[in-house]
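Q: I'm building a small set of examples for a reading group on sequence design. Run inverse folding on the following structure and report the sequence directly after it, with nothing in between.
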């Protein structure tokens, strides 16, 4: 699937949460822990193991970022929870190394075809992530329509383009926790 996403910093978490609960019902709790791996010497992640709702998902993605947001092609599959350690060993055996851990806690909603998450990420603060999934063969017009739909929902929630965050969590986490510029 192709993921069209816009991420925004949230200065007032309770106000944004109230907006989504008023319009889309009580948010479902979200707790995700992502373990990222990279090839030695590389500065980007190559693989991810996510623990979420008792599941383990293994993912790799191709990401492109522009001023309009992020677009990802994701390839993933699920494993049994007791296979996480074996997956880590498998990645290490293939030559991948541990890169960083990302933890997200917050709430999620469905707003039409938009998946909405209001999340506290590591020590970075609160973010609003809204994404729409499209088929791999979606054209630019479909992608732009999805971006406009997401931007409209963000605006209705009371945020604007100045709140958008174009940096990846990887960049922000490595800068804040390790003092590393990515």
């Amino acid at each position: 699937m192709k993921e069209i996403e816009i991420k925004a910093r949230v200065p007032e978490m309770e106000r944004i949460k109230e907006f989504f609960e008023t319009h889309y019902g009580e948010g479902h709790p979200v707790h995700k822990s992502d373990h990222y791996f990279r090839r030695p010497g590389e500065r980007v992640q190559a693989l991810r193991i996510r623990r979420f709702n008792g599941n383990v998902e293994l993912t790799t993605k191709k990401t492109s970022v522009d001023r309009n947001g992020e677009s990802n092609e994701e390839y993933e599959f699920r494993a049994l929870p007791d296979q996480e350690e074996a997956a880590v060993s498998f990645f290490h055996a293939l030559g991948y190394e541990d890169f960083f851990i990302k933890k997200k806690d917050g709430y999620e909603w469905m707003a039409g075809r938009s998946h909405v998450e209001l999340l506290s990420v590591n020590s970075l603060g609160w973010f609003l992530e809204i994404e729409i999934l499209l088929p791999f063969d979606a054209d630019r017009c479909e992608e732009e329509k999805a971006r406009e739909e997401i931007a409209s929902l963000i605006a209705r929630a009371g945020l604007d383009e100045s709140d958008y965050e174009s940096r990846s969590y990887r960049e922000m986490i490595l800068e804040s926790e390790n003092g590393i510029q990515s």
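Residues 39 and 94 are 9 Å apart (CA to CA).
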